[in-house]
Amino acid sequence: MIKHLIGTLLLAVSLTLAAFGQATTTDDLLQKGIALYDAGNYKGALEQYAQALKLEAKNPTVNYEISLTYFALQDMPNTIRYSDVVIKSKNTSPSIKAQALVNKGSALDITGKSAEAITAYRKALKLDPSYQMAYYNLGLTLYNQEAYREAQNNLIEAIQLRPSHASSHLLLAYTMQAQHNRVQSLLAYYNFLLLEPNSERASTAFQDMQRMQNEGVSKSGENTIHLTVRPDQLENSPFSAADLLLSAMQATNISDEKKGKSEEELFYNNTASFFSILKELKKEEQGFWWSYYVDFFHDMDAQGNTEAFCYYIGQSEAAKKWEAKHPEKINELASWYKTYKR
Length: 342
Prior knowledge:
The protein is built from 18 helices and two strands. The chain is mostly helical. Strand 1 (217-220) and strand 2 form a beta hairpin. Helix 4 (60-72) packs parallel to helix 6 and helix 5 (76-88) runs antiparallel to helix 6. Strands 1-2 form a two-stranded antiparallel sheet.
C-alpha cells in the first residue's frame, strides 16, 4: 500500500511538472503572444513575450515579435530597441536579421530619419537579397524622398519577387506618374486594380487612372475637340507613341459617334485598344514593362478576358451589376489569372 501510494504521488508530481514545463516554454509563450497579436491584443502579446524573455532574454524570434508589436503600438523607440537585439545577435539567421532591419528601417523612416532607414533596408538586402518587403520599403522611402528612378528600380524588384503584392504595383504607378510616364503608370494601375478592386484606395486609383487617360483632351462648344500634345509624346520611342495614341483614343470618346455608349463600354473598348496597341508596338522591345505588363495584358485580351477585367475593376454601380449578371466570365478571368505564369 505504501509503495503504491508513493508511486502514485511520484506520478502526480511528474505529470504536474510536465504540464508546468509545457506551459512555460519559450515557444509556448511565443505562440500565445503571436495569437494575441493577431487578435489585436498588443498589450496582452507583450505580457507573454515578457515572460518568454525571462526564459531566454536574447531569443531572436521573441525580440523580433516584440519589435513588431511595439511598431503596431506606434512606439518607435522600443521598435528600434528590440530590433537591435535581433540585429546584434551572433546566432541569428540572416533572414531574421533582415526582417529586423526592415522593421527598424520603418521605425526610423516614421521618425524622420529617412537616410538611416535607407541604410537599414540596404543592409537587409545584403543579408537576404530575396526579401521582397525590403525592396518595397526601400522603394517607398525613396519615393517619399523624390528619388523616383531609384524607387522605380526597387519596386520592380519587389514585384518580380512577389507579383501578388498589390501595394508594390500601386506605388510603382505613383512613381511612374511622378516621372510623367503615363503609359507605364497606367499599366501598374491596371495590375493593382486586378489584385485589389474593392478597397477605398482602389476607388481613388480608378479615378486617378481615368483622369490620366483623359489628359490633354478637352472639348469646347458642341463639336470642337482639342488634343494637346506634350513634347515627350513626340519622342521616338514605343512608349511615347503609345502615349500619343492613347490621347487620340480618348479624343474619340467625346465625339458624336460615341454618344450612344456608356462609360463602362467606352472604358472596355479603350482598354482593349490600349493593350492591343502596346502589343503591336512591342515588336523586338525587351525589358520589364514589355515582358511583365504588356505581355500579361495582351494575353488577357487574347483569351477574351478584357471585358470581364474592365467590369471587375470598375467602380460604378453599372459595373457591379454587370459583374453580378456574368459570374461565368468573372470565373473565366479568375481561372486564366490563376494559371498564368509570369
